[in-house]
Each structure stands twice: as structure tokens, then as C-alpha cells.
Amino acid sequence: MRIGMFTSGYQRNPLDHVFIDAARFGYDYVELWGGRPHAFAPDLLAGDLAGILDLIQRYQVPVEVYTPEHNAYPYNYMIGSESQRLDALTYLRSCLEAGHALGARCTTISAGHAGYATPRVEVRKRLVRSLRELADHAERLDHLLVLEALTPAESNSCTSADDLVEVLDAVGSPRLAAMCDIVPPFLRHEPITGTLDRLGDRLAHLHIVDSDGVTDTHLVPGEGALPLRELMAELAEAGYAGTATIELVTNYLHEPRLYARRALANLRALMRD
């Protein structure tokens, strides 16, 4: 299993710190957060891409996953008018193009909140229609689009393994897969191993962090309530050999370099036990 560094926690640091630290701490790859100031897709396509490609080459750390910023202001394809949906999809198509240009294996997205007054059947119709349009673009690029389920506090569009399976079946694209952030099933009291079993070979990626079991706060591995040692053993026995990013987001913005070092050391120790 290859372990990646998520760059959102470095958003107050220069981007070269990400690649310097990933190389010196021993991360296998970077999952690049697509927000300003570092890697907003329109900025990349307008000329900023060359600087990131230079960092990849200089430090010999690949960008395996590109994760654009969306689902909040101003882009959420699950809420608002049709023109707002189309604007969000135009942006996400540019994100797919940026991920492809970076040489990433995949671009990951999720489905934002559809609003409290939207009927469930309309939520599902909008989600499937939008993902089908994005998957068509991914197919043209020969690039993998990966869908993540969120917690119910974050979304009412796609929050469970059942949602992921149903949506992937409905879209039916070879360029659309799923990923598992292990926090949402833990908070929903759903078995994480069951989520992995349900997705099967359509599981393309993992987010590994710890959780307090109450909120969606992402904690350094080994510093929460998740049984990570046992989960790592299950993944090893299942033969999972894909990517797993330690998704530290905003909880450690004040000291991303220290916590990125600790997170990898903790997870490697849990994997060895």
C-alpha cells in the first residue's frame, strides 16, 4: 500500500514545502489539493502547471491524486439552478483536465449538500446526471474520476457504501470509480471492512486518518478512536496494494510539517504491528 501526503494542510505554507517534506519524510506520493494559492485548476491551466511539474521532477515525488476544492462557495453541482449546476460542471471538467495534465492517476470529487427541501428522488437524478456528464469527459481524457462519500454533516447526496454502489451502477462508466474515506463509515456506525467489500475492484483509493467518533475532524493516525492497527491488518490480508492518503486537512494548519512527519511515522508503526 502506497502512502500519500494531502496538501490541504499546507495551504498557508509555500508549495515547495509539500514536496520537500514528502521526500524527506518518506511519503510515496502527493495528493494535491486543488485550491488557491497552490493548485486551483484554472490557475494550473493558465500557466501554473509548469511550476508543479518542476517540483515533481526536482523532488521525485509524483502527484498520484488531484483533489479539487468544490462543494462550497462558489461550486456545488448538487444545489441551485441549472445554470449553477452547469457552471460547477464546467469547473470540474477543467479539474479533470488539470489532473490529467499533472500526470495524476485520478481526480477525486464528492457530492455536496443538495439542500434540505430537495426531494430524495431529485437528489439522485441530479447526482447521476452530473456524474455521467463528468464521466464522459473523463473517458475522453482517458483519466479516472473517483467519487468519495461524505458524512451526513457534510452532504445529503452520497454518504454511504450503498450510495456509492448505486451511483456507480447507474452511471456505468469504466472511468468512474469510488474511494473510501474511513471517517464517514465510522461515524455512521457502518463497518469499514464492509464498505471495502461492497466496492470490490471499484475501490480506487483510500483516505486514512483517525477520528474522535463524534465529529468529522480528521486526526493524526493513532490519536483517535478508530481501530487502525486492526484495519491495517485487514487491508494487508485482503491484499490491498493501492493508494492511501493521510488526509490531514485544517486541524493542523499551524504546524503542518510536524504533524505530517508524525502522521506517517504513526501509520507506518501501525502497519508493522
Q: What is the C-alpha radius of gyration, as a whole number of Å?
A: 18 Å
Largest sheet: 8 strands, parallel, barrel
Number of strands: 8
Please state the average pLDDT score.
96
Structural class: alpha/beta
- Structural domain count: 1
CATH topology: TIM Barrel
What overall form do the CA principal axes indicate? globular
Distance between the termini: 15 Å
Strand order of the largest sheet: 1-2-3-4-5-6-7-8
Protein name: Protein FrlC
InterPro entries: IolE/XylAMocC-like, Xyl_isomerase-like_sf, Xyl_isomerase-like_TIM-brl
Domain Xylose isomerase-like TIM barrel: 21-269
Organism: Consotaella salsifontis
Molecular structure report:
There is one protein chain. With 273 residues, the protein is α/β, with parallel strands linked by helices. It has one domain (2-272): TIM Barrel (Alpha-Beta Barrel), CATH 3.20.20. It is 45% helix and 15% strand. It is built from 9 helices and 8 strands. It has helices at residues 15-25, 41-59, 82-101, 120-141, 161-171, 183-187, 192-199, 228-238, 256-272; strands spanning 2-6, 29-34, 63-68, 106-110, 144-148, 176-181, 203-207, 243-246. The chain has an 8-stranded parallel barrel with strand order 1-2-3-4-5-6-7-8, surrounded by 6 helices. Helix 4 (120-141) links the parallel strand 4 and strand 5. The longest helix is centred in the middle third of the chain and has 22 residues, at 120-141. It is globular and about 45 Å long. The mean pLDDT is 96. InterPro entries: IolE/XylAMocC-like, Xyl_isomerase-like_sf, Xyl_isomerase-like_TIM-brl.
